[in-house]
Amino acid sequence: MLENTNNIIGIKALINGKGFDFKGKIVDSKNAEVVSFKNEYLGMSKCSFYYKASERYEAIFDINDTTYRVKLQKAKRLGLVLKVINSQERKDVLSIELQTNSYSINNTENNYTLLFHQKNKLSGYTEISLKDTMKLKLELQKEGLFNGVNSVTVFKNKQPVLERKFFNYKEDEKLKITCSELKTQKDSLVYKLSLNKIGEKANLSVSVFSETAGYNQINTIESAFLLTPYVKGYVENPQYYFNSTNKTANEDLDLLLLTQGWTQYSTEEYLKQLNPDYKYNFELGFNLEGRVSPVMSNRLALISKKNQLIVETFLKNDTKFSFKKLLIYEGDSIKVAFLGGENGNKAIKPRNIYFDTVVKRKNVLSRKFHSDFIKSEDKKIELLAEDNYRGLNVSNITELGEVKLKGKKEASSI
Asked: How far apart are CA 103 and CA 53, in angstroms?
């Protein structure tokens, strides 16, 4: 809150995690009522009042036959107030009001940046200045915003100072689907779903239930994709906000987003949210790691059962090796060999090789394959040049160490 300005307060009352009916008021230091409020939907409400610099305020709540008194935090002397007007009367326009006080105008720089985003996706930004006025109103076209919950964050000197969530519903992005029965097949019915737009990406869900069965839907595909991923904590009855028969659904949805609040963070933390670090490596194919000894060549290769060179790696005199993102399928076999010789065209069997498991299991250790496990002698294999794969001369082929892959889980038992 900011001194000597109108401040909007979001109010939320929960008992055991569920919204509860209440009423209340805000009083000043003389116990005079400043503004009253009451529950509007699922324990949520809001009020607005002018915060005088010389006053202190207290909120009085009546909840479940109990009266609570809560002292409001002291308003800041310097700062800015952010107000979002998401009116249904002007469905294509979003209005944003920024207000400060005379003390802030005279004692601090008032250059701000407004960033519009949805999680780690940016829709735009604008820079403003409050040098000659204490109040500024912006109007934005909603078509440039994302469908669903959006956020506007106010930055000053590259630090976020205010944030507000709001909802933008794009009716034109909702595809029309028709369902028609094609035929009856024994005990089954075959239906056809048709979209009004061809080639469009869509999130779809299908529910099948009896006409006589009661169906009290709590969540819908709209609330699951457009609302709950962007709201902290549990949302009661999220489908309510998307039911066109609920006349106050839009106002109640704005209440839900108003009471979300925010956690102040640094610019570095904010940018990290926009570009999050992935927690796990993206899986593409298989990884095969292990050790060989001795290092008979710095070139180590994987060879298919049909004697084609799949991939090779350079060891740099290190006994450890690693092959990443191998596109190998269940039932395939591969062989491990050094590549050496004067022209680098000889395949040489490793004497000792250790394989690390892909997925660690209890009581499963990396096995060591000794030279006596591989019955053949070291023999030369000529390599034929190709762009991606090079075929092997099939005459006098050495039976190299062979690793049998049977899916990812089986690979862990090597």
From this structure: 11
Are the C-beta atoms of 92 and 170 separated by less than 8 Å? no
Is residue 135 located within the same domain as residue 228? yes
Buried-exposed string 257-267: b where 16+ CB fall within 10 A, e elsewhere = bbbbeeeeeee
**Residues 151 and 264 reside in one and the same domain:** yes
Per-residue model confidence as pLDDT tens digits over 282-292 = 667 778 889 99
Assign 251 a pLDDT band (cuts: 50, 70, 90). Answer: very high
- Whether the CB-CB separation of 46 and 11 falls below 8 Å is answered with yes
Residues 98 and 179 in one domain: yes
Q: Give me the count of residues in the chain.
A: 414
Helix or strand (DSSP H, E) at 286? strand 286-293
The Cα–Cα gap between 313 and 324 comes to 10
Give CA torsion, residues 293, 294, 298, 303, to 10 deg: -50
DSSP 297-360: -SEEEEEETTSBEEEEEE-TT-SEEEEEEE---TT-EEEEEEEESTTS-EEE--SEEEEE-SS-
Query: Beta strands of 157-285 (E only): which ranges?
Result: 159-168, 177-185, 188-195
Domain of 53 in residue numbering reads as 6-71
CATH of the domain at 156: 2.60.40.1930
pTM of the model: 0.63
Q: Are residues 134 and 62 located together in one domain of the fold? A: no
Residue 306's region, left for phi above 0, alpha for psi from -120 to 50, else beta, is alpha
CA distance 79 to 27: 23
Residues 307 and 398 in one domain: yes
The pLDDT tens digits for 313-333 are 999 889 999 888 888 777 777
The reply to whether 99 falls in a domain is yes
* Co-location of 130 and 234 in the same domain: yes
272 in any annotated domain: yes
